[in-house]
Specification:
Number of helices: 21
Distance between the termini: 77 Å
Order of helices and strands: HHHHHHHHHHHHHHHHHHHHH
Number of strands: 0
Radius of gyration: 25 Å
Largest sheet: none
Shape: globular
Helix content: over 70%
């Protein structure tokens, strides 16, 4: 297990405490709902843009994405190709409508257009999926830090959760926006420092361009995939079609994002904030993936562990499979030494045969790592201990802890925890707002402004406790960033379809939409599990498009049936 030096503790603690104290102090004393839930409509476009980015860029982004690139290369960036398209649509359609209706939540609009039960159902769908996601954004950094640092998982979940609860409950939307600006600054600085240190730690004769050549020789720089292969999760088409629908749903109908830009001073400020996000987000994700690729190149010259999860390695070395595991480690070391000769040859004279030989050596190494994962799974099953054998989420944190100078380790850990706090604060803020406005206020008698602010704070606090509870009982998926996107994809398509029906299908009424939404949610959940158990082949990204299309088709059909029945009766 790793231990942090005093300077790392100082940097980590000072950064996190400064953010919490600053956010609480700057936004104290919200007296009315307008100030607490919409930040008094004072946010400038750059605050909105950074807040929107910080909400999406959770700790999972900075833990899982480099590991994704380390294993699979740059292709994951295609997932974000639909984001700029979604930003333009939201700026043209969603923002002007929300502003004109002066809503606190996206779901208020649905009652005006349809009826109360449709608004309530959509709000509940949001609360379910975002409540689960809030728990995962706390759990993700906690589980990994607990493993690599030996910290207690339960304590970490509680610490992260309560740090966020303090300033989110205290200052509401403005506190979230104010703190997220500073969190994004910490995040950008930390990732830039990490990138330059990785490149600096490469051998002296390995320039950045040569590093890219090595990565390219191993297929890590293949960005675009125009195939229609459904077995490949990340392609240009899944990003443009599935990604656009996911981003439209997330940024246009998810209250954790809608609340960020509803705090803007004007429609123009809101639109500029989202355009800023649309322009910067794809390059940012490209850069984070590139960090992961550079980590891959680093481990071409420095021997990597056969599995980056130290708990998994410790478990298997104390099992009956220890000798088999050690044999795999020796085999991996042989491949590493063979690869050094090939890489030196490639650097002196680039040729296709050498590139193929390096790629073959890395594939052999990947095969060994897969065998090690299988052994870990066997031990885990035999001993009934839940241990994650897929180590994608541990790659970047392993590099940080073992290769960065003291002080900078604290900064990078602050980046990870800041990202967790920024994303979780937006989610708790939105969960509290939706519960207050769409469920509590709408179904109770008129209350005073002071009462509603107190109610918002208590609901936000309650959701914070629920999120900590979810984090404490959560289980790891294959990759944490995929887990969050899977949860979103199961619900987002249906919710987006409801909003598109509201915007563009004026003949469809509330009863048809409500029934269609219930049917669609059951169908989408069924499709997901059919794919999980390999009865069909439907990657989760496509659930956004499928769910949206199904709810629109069913609602339109039901409305025509209802209309025909009414015509027959009359």
């Amino acid at each position: 297990m790793q231990t942090l030096s005093l300077i790392d503790w100082v940097v980590l603690s000072a950064t996190l405490l400064a953010i919490v104290v600053y956010g609480t102090w700057q936004t104290r004393g919200s007296k009315n709902v307008q100030d607490y839930l919409k930040g008094g409509n004072t946010s400038k476009w750059w605050t909105i843009g950074l807040s929107v980015m910080a909400t999406q860029a959770s700790a999972i982004t900075f833990l899982s994405t480099p590991g994704q690139a380390f294993n699979d290369g740059m292709g994951f960036v295609q997932f974000y190709f639909g984001l700029p398209i979604a930003m333009v649509v939201i700026c043209m359609v969603f923002i002007p409508l929300y502003h004109r209706l002066n809503v606190y939540t996206a779901y208020e609009f649905l009652e005006n257009r349809f009826d109360l039960k449709t608004r309530t159902l959509t709000a509940i769908l949001f609360l379910i999926q975002r409540g689960l996601a809030a728990g995962i954004t706390i759990f993700a950094p906690a589980i990994i830090l607990s493993v690599v640092l030996g910290w207690d998982l339960l304590t970490l979940n509680i610490i992260i959760g309560f740090l966020v609860i303090i300033y989110t409950v205290s200052g509401g939307t403005r506190a979230v926006n104010v703190t997220q600006k500073h969190q994004m600054v910490v995040i950008f600085i930390g990732m830039l420092v990490a990138f330059f240190l990785i490149v600096d730690k490469l051998p002296e004769d390995i320039t950045f361009s040569k590093a890219l050549s090595i990565a390219g020789a191993n297929g890590k720089m293949e960005i675009l995939d125009f195939s229609f292969d459904l077995n490949n999760r990340y392609t240009f088409w899944s990003g443009i079609i599935g990604g656009t629908f996911l981003m439209l749903s997330y940024f246009g109908t998810d209250q954790s994002q809608v609340q960020r830009y509803l705090s803007g001073k004007s429609v123009k400020e809101m639109q500029l904030g989202l355009i800023f996000n649309g322009i910067l987000k794809v390059p940012m994700q490209f850069f984070i993936l590139l960090v992961g690729v550079m980590v891959f190149v680093f481990y071409q010259f420095n021997e990597a562990p056969i599995n980056f999860n130290p708990t998994a390695t410790e478990l298997i070395l104390n099992s009956k499979y220890a000798e088999e595991f050690k044999s795999l480690q020796q085999e991996q070391q042989s491949h590493f030494e063979e690869k050094q000769v090939l890489i030196k040859s490639l650097l002196h004279s680039e040729n296709e045969a050498t590139s193929k030989a390096i790629s073959k050596a890395n594939k052999a190494s990947d095969s060994i790592r897969n065998k090690a994962r299988n052994l870990i799974d066997k031990v885990s099953q035999n001993q009934s201990i839940k241990v994650e054998s897929n180590d994608k989420d541990y790659v970047f944190i392993h590099f940080i802890l073992n290769n960065l100078p003291r002080g900078l380790i604290g900064l990078l850990l602050a980046v990870i925890l800041s990202a967790a706090m920024s994303s979780t604060s937006s989610e708790l803020n939105a969960l509290g707002s939706t519960t207050t406005i769409d469920l509590y206020k709408r179904n109770t008698s008129e209350k005073t402004e002071e009462h509603m602010v107190k109610a918002s704070k208590w609901f936000t606090f309650a959701w914070g406790i629920i999120a900590i509870g979810v984090a404490c009982i959560a289980n790891l998926a294959e990759n944490l960033i995929q887990l969050v996107n899977i949860i979103g994809s199961i619900f987002y398509g249906n919710v987006l379809g409801i909003f598109l029906l509201a915007f563009f299908f004026k003949f469809v009424k509330g009863q048809a939409v409500f029934i269609a939404a219930l049917i669609t949610q059951v169908i989408v959940i069924a499709l997901y599990f059919l794919d999980v158990y390999h009865h069909i082949n439907l990657p989760f990204l496509w659930l956004n498009f499928v769910g949206c299309a199904i709810v629109i088709a069913i609602a339109c059909s039901l409305q025509l049936i209802i209309k025909n029945d009414d015509t027959i009766r009359t």
